[in-house]
Design brief:
- The structure is a homodimer of 416-residue chains.
- The first copy, chain A, is α+β, with helices and mostly antiparallel strands.
- In chain A, the strands form 4 sheets. In chain A, strands 1, 2, 3, 5, 6, 7, 14, 15 and 16 form a 9-stranded mixed beta sheet that branches.
- Chain A has 2 domains: 3-210 and 327-413, Zn peptidases (Aminopeptidase, 3-Layer(aba) Sandwich), CATH 3.40.630.10; 211-324, Alpha-Beta Plaits (2-Layer Sandwich), CATH 3.30.70.360.
- Chain A has helices at 3-14, 31-46, 91-107, 133-138, 144-147, 158-164, 195-198, 237-254, 292-313, 332-345, 360-363, 390-408, and strands at residues 50-53, 59-63, 73-78, 109-111, 115-120, 184-190, 203-209, 211-220, 224-225, 261-269, 276-277, 280-289, 316-324, 328-329, 349-354, 369-374, 410-413.
- Chain A contains 12 helices and 17 strands.
- Chain A is 34% helix and 24% strand.
- In chain A, helix 10 (332-345) packs across helix 12 (390-408).
- The interface between A and B is large, with 71 and 71 residues.
């Protein structure tokens, strides 16, 4: 079987684990995600890797190196998805890592440094509103008492979700590897944006990752009868939320030169009914930029809008910051390695920033980190229509393989 | 026991049937509403009324008159509520009717005409998006094949809800009494608006009922990643919905001289997540006016806004009209009777229109109909804070009693 067919079967296999009818739904710590992670763990074991699940549910597979005690070269991404996701976000990076291992095994390559492959737990914020939980735990940056009680849409807390996976939330700190230093960390990921496709590039060498600030806003007005409450006597929470969403859009458009984006991705009307003026609405706000200053201008505009709405609509607005991440710069040393490989292989590449957060942004704490993008069709992601060409993924895997080998150092090729 | 204490106990008794922790939740065809209706039926039986439940779940209690075959004088309102409702909307009218019957029994009054008391089923649209189902069925105006498949927020169809109440939806036509003519129909109801309180009036004599037009709008954009989709490449369905909601508000404010109101009471984001640009949003729109022309101008503005949004945001909008009612004028003969009683009793009153729909608007098909309002504190309704003073309710009951007696004609007072 050639590498291409083998890889396609691996990716298809992973996407069998799916709770949804439309697209892929493999939510963090769900039955589908757990079964998938455990199946993937067995696949790693079949490649003679040492496998373990840490106390946060991260799957770690290790291929020993020749020289004792050298720091590992690590590949990783995630297997969890948003609701009604595509087949590529996260899954590409994890399966690419296993394909690299298979190639090394096929070629009988032994490296000086050990190589690890990690499937990080709960990268997506879809379930609990917080992202990259597994890699945060690995670098010892979990806000344990805040995370413990976060609830999903069914009211299940993170602590409870852990226990359903036979994980003890109280032990989450033990997932930390912050005393270790990795030789290098590589994440191959789909771009999830339109830039590579538009510019006909095959590889994006990521220089920095945008930082997100996230809010939960509760707008509290007065619910009243839709037929008998004159327009000028209403305290309509939904209209307040609508104004906030549109003001955020306007503010982000003003910051277009910085690539700053702002989104209201969730909006819930409490006790909504056709004949009731909405009395309480909750929205979740996500603002991202690679420029802290630009992001702050959008946040300032948000707060200005909120105070205008409080005055104009006589509503109350409660705000809670649930995430405030700092932009991250990636390793220029690893960028150079990846660039040289692209040049050598004659693969069109560009340097770019990442608008999405990734586990890589935490892994910088443990060593030099590289994030490598491949094109996404029409830039669509978090959507069943998400697509990356198999040829593009295989180009990415070639580059990943060579970069890992350069870092892990090959001194021996055994007979196979 | 005096009438005041007796009546308060009756109303309190009804409000024990409650599924909610905040306010009263007694949704149509729910366990709470059914138990309440059946308990109320037993209370009517205890007052020597003939009782029956029709094929739509309307509870009908009848006190025979002295002369055979005379048409009935009917009192009625509803026992179902919205989610997190108050204690007065609907319940006041039904319990007032029973209090009137108790008074007649106490006084040994026999009327020429029979008197009926009806607790209409499913007056509120909170569950299925359609209102006054019971009174519509009674006047033979049910769109059976449309209603059958309407779903509540848990996906339960109206047909299924009927079957859980041991009602056969296929028999709903048998609830029709359109071959009958009532002598008169009276509904006592809380105003649910601020006018009586503001003007220090105790009774509102309703001249006409505003007509509602209702839409379900589905805005379909493209869900995509909130971090990687530039603002100018988004097809954000939620922002489209936000613009529609705000445009409706603006259009209704323009029509303020007609008392026209427009509301988006429900908004659902499909597969909403903090890091996903919303791809599909459904909203429910309710527009009401006593002026058909004014209402139409708001509807026209709605459609103009929709086409602007389709162009601007590259989204698709599907619209469905789920209700289109005509304004109703009430009986001037009964208005005069009520007015004269107010004058005689020296109770401050005014004529007014109703912004809310009521079962009365259907009952005009069966005979002269009167709708009598009592004040609502601060005009708040469909809200746990809904309040009407007991003294005001008792004034309303006095007027209801006398109006019913005038129409039903008293020729005999037996010893008690």
């Amino acid at each position: 079987m050639n590498d291409k067919k083998r890889y396609k079967e691996l990716l298809d296999n992973i996407n069998q684990y799916n709770a949804g009818e439309i697209g892929i739904t493999r939510i963090a710590y769900s039955n589908e995600e757990q079964t998938c992670t455990h199946a993937f763990m067995r696949m790693c074991k079949a490649e003679n890797m040492e496998i373990r699940l840490d106390d946060c549910g991260n799957m770690i597979a290790r291929r020993e190196g020749k020289i004792a005690d050298l720091p590992p070269v690590v590949m990783g991404s995630h297997l969890d998805t948003v609701y009604q996701a595509g087949k590529y976000d996260g899954a590409v990076g994890v399966t690419a890592g296993l394909e690299v291992i298979k190639r090394l095994n096929d070629k009988g390559i032994v490296t000086d440094h050990p190589i690890e492959l990690i499937a990080f737990a709960c990268e997506e914020s879809a379930r609990f509103g917080v992202s990259t939980v597994g890699s945060k735990a690995m670098v010892g940056k979990i806000n344990k008492e805040m995370y413990r009680y976060l609830k999903d849409r069914n009211g299940i807390t993170m602590e409870k979700a852990f226990s359903l996976c036979a994980l003890d939330f109280n032990s989450i700190d033990q997932a930390s590897r912050k005393e270790e230093t990795f030789k290098a960390f590589f994440e191959l990921h789909i771009e999830q944006g339109p830039i590579l496709e538009n510019e006909k590039k095959k590889i994006g060498i990521v220089t920095g990752i945008a930082a997100a600030v996230r809010f939960i806003l509760k707008i509290i007005g007065t619910s009243s009868h839709s037929g008998t409450t004159p327009m000028n006597m209403r305290k309509d929470a939904l209209l307040g939320a609508a104004e906030i969403a549109l003001a955020l859009e306007e503010a982000a458009i003003q910051e277009r030169e910085y690539g700053t984006v702002a989104t209201v991705g969730e909006l819930d009307v409490y006790s909504g009914a056709m004949n009731v003026v909405p009395g309480e609405v909750q929205i979740k706000v996500d603002i991202r930029s690679t420029s802290i200053e630009s992001r702050q201008r959008v946040v300032d505009h948000l707060y200005k809008t909120i105070s205008q709405i409080i005055n104009k609509r006589q509503v109350e607005v409660k705000d809670k910051v649930i995430g405030m991440e700092a932009p991250v710069n990636l390793s220029s040393e690893l960028m150079d390695i990846v660039e040289q490989i692209c040049v050598k292989k004659d693969i069109a590449y560009r340097h770019m920033q990442s608008g999405a957060g990734h586990d890589s942004m935490n892994m910088v704490e443990l060593g030099p980190t590289a994030l490598i993008f491949i094109p996404s069709k029409e830039g669509i992601s978090h959507n069943p229509k998400e697509h990356s060409d198999l040829e593009d993924i295989l180009d990415g895997i070639d580059i990943l393989e060579e970069a890992v080998l350069q870092c892990a150092k090959v001194t021996t090729i055994t007979d196979v």
